[in-house]
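User: Can you help me understand a structure? I only have the sequence.
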Amino acid sequence: MDVDARSLPENAGEHANVSFRNGNCLNLPFDKGKLGLLTYFHVLEHIRDLSALLAEADRVLGENGHILIEVPDAENYTGTPIGSAFWFSIREHINHFTAKALAAALKAHGFAVCDVSRQMLETPEFAYPSLVVLAQKNATLPSFALPAAADVAGFARISRQALMHQAEQISALAADRRMTIWGCSAELFSLLPLFDKREMRLCDSSKLKQSTHYKGMPIEDPTTVPVEGMLVIAPYLHRDAIKAAAERLGWPDNALYLLQ
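Assistant: Let's start by predicting it. Here is the structure, written out as tokens:
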């Protein structure tokens, strides 16, 4: 099941052993007590009403049914130093879970934790901290030994301070110069509200992003932006490639600022 109909195969009927449904996790298109297992991969970090999600899971699961959840492991953010404020700049991630927090949410809805898996998973761009929790409905199980919780709140404070420092440093360096920002990334949309009102331009290599705007400010093609003033390279993950492209367009090294 997926909330985005575009993610479903066009010819779903050709998959004899799998059915595809369009729906959302707060209103599952399944009858009460009919399922044995529900899986949620990269869902709970995006949902405001976790109580409604888990109540709906309880509704459609049969007696002793299982729920399997994967979310980013907030306690291992420090093990993936992609950028100083990377994990808390992903603005669509409105929840950041520890194993204990996720277990507590499940327990409140009658689910007992069976197992917890924590590992670093390789992606094409970085190592991703994964937290997987398996729980069972209406089960009488021994208390599962959960790992001691790390200081996620402290990490959040450090990330916020780093973001503020970046904004202050960029503002000081830009001074009276025109500022161009390359890369409409999650990091950028956390930084933009921290800048003083100034003359700036936004650009991105994506043709799709070039058809949009930010608060009336157009997203321009980097090849058409004048090489003047200061260029801020916003994405953490693609900064080296963007830096090389900017240098090919004539941006001098002393005009570049890369988020770290």
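Now, to help you interpret it: The chain is about 25% helix and 25% strand. The helical segments are 50-60, 86-89, 99-107, 152-174, 186-191, 207-210, 239-248. Let me know which part you'd like to focus on.
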